Structures are given as C-alpha cells and as structure tokens.
Amino acid sequence: VEYFPVSAGSWWTYETSFPSSLVEPINVHDTVYVAGIESNVARLRGPGSYEAEYRITGDVVTQIIALDGTSDSSAHVIRTPLSVGTQWQSYHNAHEIVAVDSTVDTPAGIFQDVVVVETHTCAGRALILCKTSYSIHTYYAKNVGLIKTTTRTGGSDIHPPQITRQLVSYSQ
Q1: pLDDT of residue 50
Q2: Between the CA atoms of 94, 167, 30 and 119, what dihedral angle is there, to the nearest 10 degrees?
Q3: End-to-end Cα, the chain, rounded Å
Q4: How far are the Cα atoms of 88, 115, 139, 143, 169 from residue 108, in angstroms, in the given order?
C-alpha cells in the first residue's frame, strides 16, 4: 500500500501534544524507524521498548499482534479500496475511511490527497466494561505514510481533551 511505505533506513519523527492544565500543551518528540524487513513483514522500532510488526500486502496493512502466543491478523491499519465509506472491524474497534482527498499541514510540510481513517474504540477488554470511548483520526500521505493522528476521549465534557501527533521530519 503506497500510503504505508517502508524501506530499510526509513524513519519518521513526530511531535505529540498533550493537553495540560498549563497554558501551553506538553510536547514530546519521538522517532520511529524501520528496524528490519523480512518478506512482507516490516518491524518498526521507536522510543523505549516500542516495537511493532506490520504485514504489508497489496490491499491491506495489518499490525501483527500476538495474543496468547498466536498471531492475530485482524488488526488492519489501512486497507483497500481506498475510498470513502470503506469499513472494517478489529477487536472492539470500528474503522472507516472518511476522506481520501484531504490536505493536511504538518511541521514536515503540506500533504495533498491524504487518506483519513476514523477509528472508534473503547478502553477496557469488553464493551460492557467500557468506561471511556475514543475517536481517533489517522492521516496517511501517499509515499510518506502516517503523518498525523488526533485522539479525542468521549464522555460528557463539551470539549474533550485531544492528543495530536504529527510528523516533523522523515526520510524514505
């Protein structure tokens, strides 16, 4: 998928802004890089102990998550057709492509024809235990990959806190 490109030596640096009770939000920078590629599986590493594996095929990018020692291939990150209305499920998450032609401005530049995936999820292991819901918008740029995410918590607040993570620099 051209909206999730990985190659040896690729890296992406992001700035994450957290809401705070201070006047200015708290900003944190981190870099994610391609640690290895075997067949169609890319291993990405980042700060601390962060490591994730993604299986990339022509029509879907799947995060490989081991549950009870087995791989679960249902955690699709982005999939085709890349058209508004494409939907899929993973765990208690509902995903939908809500835009395919957005223009997004980040510190790394202005990106055209951005695909936006909206995810609705719930904190907790079972829907009945759901105390907090989240709405996540993930933005993918062609030939760059993940350029931005915004996460909003649900609840009764009129303006729920939002966490924004956006691309600062990258190298393919």
Answers
A1: 87
A2: -10
A3: 15
A4: 30, 17, 13, 14, 5
Q: pLDDT of 27-50, one tens digit each?
A: 789 999 999 999 999 999 998 888
**Distance (Å) of CA 74 to CA 63, 79, 80, 89:** 8, 11, 14, 8
Tens digits of per-residue pLDDT, 76-102? 899 999 999 999 988 668 899 999 999
- Say if residues 63 and 44 touch (Cβ distance below 8 Å): no
User: In whole angstroms, what is the distance from residue 117 CA to residue 97 CA?
Assistant: 4
SS3 of 58-90: CCEEEEEEEECCEEECCCEEEECCCCCCCEEEE
Q: Rounded to an integer, what distance in angstroms lies between the CA atom of residue 101 and that of residue 111?
A: 10
Task: Over range 19-23, report the average pLDDT.
Answer: 62
What is the average pLDDT across 117-135?
70
Report residue 120 CA to chain centroid gap. Answer: 13
Tokens for 132, please give them: 């907090």
Q: Which residues pair with 76 in a beta bridge?
A: 62
Six-digit token string for 156: 């009764």
CB atoms within 10 A of CB 96: 14
With 0.90 as the threshold, say if the pTM is over it: no
